[in-house]
Amino acid sequence: MKILSRLQVRKFQFFLKCDQIEPLSKRFSSSFSNGSSFSSSETDWNGKVKPFMDDGYQDNAAKIDGMRKTVYDVCGVLENGSWGPAVEDALNSFDEMSQPEVIVGVMKRLKDVNVAFQYFRWVEGRTEQGNCAEVYNAFLMVMARTRNLEYLEQILEEMSVAGFGITNHVCVELVTSFVRSHKLKEAFGVIETMRKFKFRPAFSAYTTLIGALAEANKPDPMLTLFHQMQEIGYEANVHLFTTLVRVFAREGRIDAAISLLDEMKSNSFTADLVLYNVCIDCFGKVGKVDMAWKFFHEMKAQGLIPDDVTYTTLIGVLCKVGRLDEAIELFEELDQNRSVPCVYAYNTMIMGYGSAGKFDEAYSLLERQKRKGCIPSVIAYNCILTCLGRKGKIDEAFKILEEMRQDAAPNLTTYNILIDMLCKAGDLQAALKFQDTMKEAGLVPNIMTVNIMIDRLCKAQKLDEAYSIFSGLDHKVCTPDSRTFCSLIDGLGRRGRVGRIDEAYLILEELMQKGLTPNTYTWNCLLDALVKAEEIDEAQVCFQNMKNQKCSPNGMTYSIMINGLCMIRKFNKAFVFWQEMQKNGLKPNTYTYTTMIVGLARAGNVMEARGLFDRFKASGGIPDSACYNAMIEGLSSANKAMDAYTVFEETRLRGCRVNSKTCVVLLDALHKADCLEQAAIVGAVLREMAKSQHATRLP
User: Fold this and answer.
1) What per-residue confidence (pLDDT) applies to 225?
2) Which PANTHER family match (predicted)?
3) Which of 190, 281, 311, 694 is 20 to 30 A away from residue 183, measured at CA?
4) 269 CB contacts (<8 Å, ≥6 apart)?
């Protein structure tokens, strides 16, 4: 078969991509000068101008058309039958099977990675020369489309040995396909596998994945990729540094964020306005207000002019931590330099005044905004209503609502704020009546309205009313979401009665039938309910179901399980959960530590309890009375009288109460160990406790 030129191959690939054959180019000439190289016989054709067409070009077009037909026929064979001798015989009947263009064309249309792999290997065996780089890249694209990485390591290893490269387009598609489907772990794995076989992933592949990890708040893999980019020679930019700083600062990892800023400066990058705004926002929100101020002054020193975002962000940060005077000063600085008020700054300042309970100042700011020719928006009024709701000022809120109607029409958020206030106050009838007013205004209650009412009713233990609203929902108009189900499960579960827990189970089942996924909070509500009802075996089944549903338990989940198992004295099983919790990188809280220490001590596992007790204190934990008493009794029972006495002294120094029973157990252990001096001190404490108890009983 005649080998196609590079130009013809490119045209063929273009035709395959477009899924059509473009009309052949034609060159016409309607008139010729005497110097024309065309004869009259060539130009005169039945009295018309004869089109000139290269015969070779016609041949090439025919070949391209033939190859396109071959591609479709091969795909038909592969997609309509399982791989076997019959399929191989059918493939052997095609004359053009060895052409890379045909193989690539077939790969572009296959939707099953296993079929593509079998075809890939069959072609390789038939040609006895191995596939070319284009075919390998085409197969990688099949993996990207199908999001199946089963053969990735195998293919990349072969490409590495053969010296083939991965095109930037293929690299980006492999990563992007998993990013689009929110499979960030797999996308990260693609880049790691490429690096394993010494490939250089595309710059866009890195930045795409870093951006996706930023949205998912996963700073550590982001930083790994960032450093990897630098190692292979890619130059970082201010935008990348900004993305990383934002995520680390937002997570409260200030040292890492500052380290990135220092690295950026050492690389001679100049921070821009966006980066400074990000730093002010993120550092401020995690309580580092002085650092936010530092960035504000630094940007001005660098010659950058703070914009509305800068001012509004810092004003919001200052209001949040109660530094209202500084916020006012900054607001005035912004407002005096503007002819038109900054609406966002006004709204933020109004919210700040409201949160501080300074409603007169908030109303004054509304009037000032009007005097400047700017009518306050519904958002400004909603800010005031939100703050009034937090302070429980229902009557004042409804007065503001009437004033609001003169400037702005109340929106759905306005009604939801007021319904929430009424529900919190326990005035269900008023909330329902106000909901009717909302409907009369042409607004349809949304799922947020429903969630507010159900959640507040559940928390007020009015479960029948909450369930009535849920069961009366018109799902065509208002579809329950995960928060609706969570509120009900939490409310029903916290009653701690088996009957109600059964209802909670039914709601969980309905949630899953609707295609919604229970989150960790939902499972924790159900587990807590089961533990309170002492249904510990059922709680363990529920815990396993949670993991089967790919929902990761958090620290609270393990705390609930450990507490439940300790309640029924299954301390060793509780310790298994404790170890699993530690293995998963979760940090126990004070309650979990105390529960586990007390459980181990009472079970006689004193050394494990002591080790846990010491680690708890070393990590900054402060044991409570229950924890101290359990340790004293456990060490005393284990014939470690002096260790128990040391904990006894520490308990008294901390100001924690030592139980009389604990003193008796310790006193007995000290006598047995001939620690008479210490026994005398404990005896004296015991006598003082007896006198104190006797005095409180006197009339």
Assistant:
1) 95
2) PENTATRICOPEPTIDE REPEAT-CONTAINING PROTEIN GUN1, CHLOROPLASTIC, PPR_LONG DOMAIN-CONTAINING PROTEIN
3) 281
4) 236, 237, 238, 241
Cα separation, 564 vs 678, whole angstroms: 37
Among residues 134, 155, 143, 96, the alpha carbon closest in space to that of 115 is found at: 143
* Parallel, antiparallel or unpaired: strands 48-49 and 44-45: antiparallel
Asked if 669 and 641 touch (Cβ cutoff 8 Å), the reply is: yes
Q: Which of 370-374, 378-382, 566-570 has the highest mean pLDDT?
A: 378-382
Give the pLDDT confidence of 290-305 residue by residue, as tens digits: 999 999 999 999 999 9
Q: Which of 342, 357, 270, 283 is nearest to 309 (CA)?
A: 342
Spell out the residues 6+ positions from residue 675 whose beta carbon is closer than 8 angstroms to its own.
641, 642, 645
Contact 201, 171 (CB under 8 A): yes
Q: Which residues pair with 27 in a beta bridge?
A: 52
Structure tokens at 567: 């309640």
The pLDDT tens digits of the residues spanning 629-638 come to 888 988 888 8
Task: Record the tokens describing residue 578, joined without a space.
Answer: 């404790």
Q: How far apart are the first and last CA of the chain?
A: 116
Angle at 158 between CA 152 and CA 160, to 5 degrees: 100
* pTM for this predicted structure: 0.61
Report how far apart, in Å, the C-alpha atoms of 170 and of each of 179, 203, 245 are: 14, 12, 30
Q: What is the 3-state secondary structure (H, E, C) of 2-28?
A: CCCCHHHHHHHHHHHHHCCCCCCCCEC
Which residue has tokens 């090439």?
60
> Of 221, 294, 295, nearest to 251 (Cα)?
221
Question: pLDDT tens digits for 336-364?
Answer: 877 788 889 999 999 898 888 888 898 89
